[in-house]
Amino acid sequence: MIYVDTSAFYALASSSDKNHARATAVLEKILASGEGMTTTSYVVSETWGLLQHRLGLSAARSFSRDVLPAIRVVWVNEALHRAGVAVWKRLSLRSANLVDCVGIALLQGLGDTRAFAYDSDFTRAGFRLP
To answer: What tens digit of pLDDT does each residue of 87-100 get?
Structure first.
């Protein structure tokens, strides 16, 4: 199961994003492999707001209608939230936000090292692109 971050969702949605072409190629590779993708409810919220703010309502609607049904969404409960806070405290990175740290905690819990993300916090935490 490959974790997908807001940075990847945005790169896929925005043709002007510097990672758009690379993200499209990574997505094609993931889809060809038949491997599933997962994200957190925090990322869904963050992505939805970012798309609506930067790209408009149609981009947010497309994300909801076309993308989300193909992704396994892990709803953040208290335990995962606390694990994310612990990651945030341990990493001590100014750029690391709670959404990313919850994703890192989820990945650590899954025992996976692959994050479809263009956020350097994932690289610093030891994760790599699929």
So the answer is: 999 987 777 899 99
Q: Which residues of 27-59 are buried (b: 16+ CB within 10 A; e: fewer)?
A: beebeeeeeebbbbebbbebbbebbeeebeeeb
Q: Which domains, from first to last, does the chain contain?
A: 2-124 (3.40.50.1010)
Centre a 10 Å sphere on the Cβ of residue 109 and count the other Cβ atoms it contains. Answer: 12
The pair of three-digit structure tokens given for residue 66, joined into one six-digit string? 């076309």
pTM score of the predicted model: 0.95
| pLDDT tens-digit readout, 72-88 | 999 999 999 999 999 99
Q: At what angle do helices 98-110 and 78-91 cross, to 10 degrees?
A: 110
**100 three-class SS:** helix
Residue 46 and residue 111: Cα distance in Å, rounded? Answer: 24
Alpha-carbon distance 115 to 130, whole Å? 7
Place of tokens 């919850």: 102
* Structure-block tokens of residue 57: 């309502």
The overall longest dimension of the chain from CA atoms, in Å, is 38
